[in-house]
Amino acid sequence: MGEECKEAAGGAGAGRAAVEGPVDPVDSAKLYEDVPPMPLMALNHISRLCKSVDDSVRFYVKALGFVLIHRPPALDFSGAWLFNYGVGIHLVQRDDARRAPDVSPAGELDPMDNHISFQCEDMGMMERRLREMRIRYMKRTINEEEGSPIDQLFFKDPDGFMIEICNCENLELVPAGALGRLRLPRDRHNPPVRMVDGGGGE
């Protein structure tokens, strides 16, 4: 069990954004004034508590093409690691000590709900796969009026966690006052980024 650092939770900066008012992307340079360059590289993995690790492994392998990989022997609890597309999914078996709010896989498909999103290069193929597996999904297209339509598919895994599939690379990312702070991994797909600051530039 790791050591918990409780001091940081209430230390300097905790809740600061909540007391300084809304963030304005047009005047966002001051947002970064006391933020040092961070040594982060990329998203490594997400972790999910599961009712059945086996069911979730089958879902992520068969529906999304993830690959099962070996976990370190030091992890002495029931779970599984999956990896593909430059990101890992770590599954942990739920028990009395590890609980998560129940989310119904049959519940409403709400794009505003918490979810993870995967960039897709063939939305038609992905939709056919969902149909083959009889996975209930929602389909929609946004941003058509702006000339950069984004197709989206929303569905849930066996534990009710929302997943999105999209062709979001049609949407250019415009930095708001932090162009020099962006770190784009060179060995994986990145969305298009406007290399001229979109407001509040440094």
TrEMBL record:
Q: Which Gene3D superfamilies match?
A: 2,3-Dihydroxybiphenyl 1,2-Dioxygenase, domain 1
Q: Any idea what this protein is called? A: VOC domain-containing protein
CDD domains, per the entry: VOC_like
> Entry's InterPro entries?
Glyas_Bleomycin-R_OHBP_Dase, Glyas_Fos-R_dOase_dom, VOC_core
Q: For the VOC domain, which residue ranges apply?
A: 42-168
**Which species is this UniProt entry from?**
Setaria viridis
Task: Extract the coiled-coil ranges from the record.
Answer: none
Q: Which domain of life is it from?
A: Eukaryota
